[in-house]
């Protein structure tokens, strides 16, 4: 076998998925249902916010960005999971694996940064209402969204690019249901210290630093205005579940990666999190719910064009 340009003898990987649990194959097809729910919910949010003139707040703008991020994350992982459940062997090429690693890293880190920005928006709207319009102007919101995408694209490119440095010349079975840095590094037959250090530092930055930056802005609305607790509580629950999965799955060196723990935690942020986000952040918002109702009516009655403001 010829040595490829990126210094590896392995041309494809086999995603183990849940093959060690054959009795769960049928229940795991529920992933298809979660995939459809996540796509439908996220697409509905984008459609509602885009078509309704009344939903032009910073929160709705970032909800659209979060929904788009959820679509990318679920579409990067779940189709391959379903393919693995339907076939005896689920393979992915080396370039395909690095591409999946990029999009999953980019979308996952984008969500964490967007949650931080949304927490700051809630803080300004509730605790600094007189300054909210200037601090979260449409121009600043667009700049924040572009900045989040750019920073996370750099992070994803760095992880995917560095994954081409190690040599893979032995086993090619990835103990996961998608391509992720820790299980991939376990298959390398060359030193992976640089990759492991970068993975831990990046996950600590996104999983610890931004977790604290997200919690702090929610402290003021919850403590100063109890009425805001009902609004912020669902957000806090979603944030806690999301970051708990990240901390459990990623804050560890590759050498101590536990396949069972990694798969269970990854299922939370690739399957359940995109399904829960539309409910936690949108359907509990009365303005979004009413706009969604108007959109459904418009679809049921095609003669009515557009959505009323």
From TrEMBL:
Look up the signal peptide feature and give its range: none
Subcellular location per UniProt equals: Cell membrane
Membrane topology per record = Multi-pass membrane protein
A molecular function (GO) held by this record is:
G protein-coupled receptor activity
- Keywords, ordered alphabetically: Cell membrane, G-protein coupled receptor, Membrane, Olfaction, Receptor, Sensory transduction, Transducer, Transmembrane, Transmembrane helix
A GO CC annotation given for this chain: plasma membrane
**Domain G-protein coupled receptors family 1 profile, residue spans:** 41-281
Output the Gene3D superfamilies linked to this UniProt entry: Rhodopsin 7-helix transmembrane proteins
Enumerate the InterPro entries for this protein. Answer: GPCR_Rhodpsn, GPCR_Rhodpsn_7TM, Olfact_rcpt, Olfactory_GPCR
Q: Which residues cross the membrane?
A: 26-49, 144-162, 193-218
Q: What does this protein do?
A: Putative odorant or sperm cell receptor.
Q: Belongs to which family?
A: Belongs to the G-protein coupled receptor 1 family.
This protein's name: Olfactory receptor
Species name: Capra hircus (Goat)
Per the record, the gene is: LOC102183864
């Amino acid at each position: 076998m010829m040595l490829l340009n990126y210094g590896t003898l392995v041309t494809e990987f086999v995603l183990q998925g849940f093959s060690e649990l054959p009795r769960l194959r049928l229940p795991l097809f529920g992933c298809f249902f979660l995939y459809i729910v996540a796509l439908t919910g996220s697409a509905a949010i984008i459609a509602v916010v885009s078509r309704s003139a009344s939903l032009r707040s910073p929160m709705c703008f970032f909800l659209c960005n979060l929904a788009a991020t959820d679509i990318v994350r679920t579409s990067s992982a779940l189709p391959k999971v379903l393919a693995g459940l339907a076939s005896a062997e689920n393979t992915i090429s080396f370039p395909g694996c690095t591409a999946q690693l990029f999009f999953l890293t980019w979308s996952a880190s984008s969500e964490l940064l967007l949650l931080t920005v949304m927490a700051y928006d809630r803080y300004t709207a509730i605790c600094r209402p007189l300054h909210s319009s200037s601090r979260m102007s449409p121009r600043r919101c667009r700049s924040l969204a572009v900045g989040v995408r750019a920073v996370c694209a750099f992070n994803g490119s760095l992880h995917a690019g560095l994954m081409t440095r190690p040599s893979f010349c032995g086993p090619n079975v990835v103990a996961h249901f998608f391509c992720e840095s820790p299980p991939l590094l376990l298959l390398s037959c060359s030193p992976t210290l640089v990759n492991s250090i970068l993975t831990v530092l990046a996950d600590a930055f996104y999983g610890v630093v931004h977790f604290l930056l997200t919690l702090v802005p929610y402290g003021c609305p919850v403590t100063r205005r109890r009425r805001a607790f009902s609004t912020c509580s669902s957000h806090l629950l979603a944030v806690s579940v999301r970051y708990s999965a990240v901390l459990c799955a990623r804050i560890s060196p590759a050498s101590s990666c536990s396949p069972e723990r990694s798969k269970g935690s990854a299922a939370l942020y690739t399957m359940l999190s995109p399904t829960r986000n539309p409910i936690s952040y949108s359907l509990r918002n009365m303005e979004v719910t009413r706009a969604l109702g108007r959109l459904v009516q418009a679809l049921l009655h095609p003669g009515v064009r557009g959505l009323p403001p």
